[in-house]
User: Fold Charged multivesicular body protein 1b from Araneus ventricosus.
Amino acid sequence: MEGARIHAENAIRQKNQALNYLRMASRVDAVASRVQTAVTTKKVTQSMAGVVKSMDAAMKSMNLEKISSLMDKFEKQFEDLDVQSSYMENTMSSTTTVTVPQNDVDHLMRQVADEAGYVNITVLFSVFQKF
Assistant:
């Protein structure tokens, strides 16, 4: 009985350590996503600055074709920024929020219990809920 208790304590300690590593990995992913967003924003800002300078030059010459072309380029860069921002927001949401549907968890536990030939599933659920 003492050996089983020691194994159970070790299992719980390992599980807690694994969860802590998972939390840390999630935080690192979130920080990496934020850094990527900052880098992308900086690149777009630099591109926009170039477009604005070109627009100033085009406005001075009043070349309508050039102005139209620059406006199209400017709009495309904003669309690209929106797509990249949306992607980064989705990535950050998925890394900072880890939710597993309860039905999936219950199904997996039943499957493991069936494979192990475990008859009393309620006892098994109560054991898992203690952890």
Summary: The two ends are 19 Å apart (CA to CA). The CA atoms of residues 26 and 98 lie 9 Å apart. The first helix runs from residue 2 to 61.
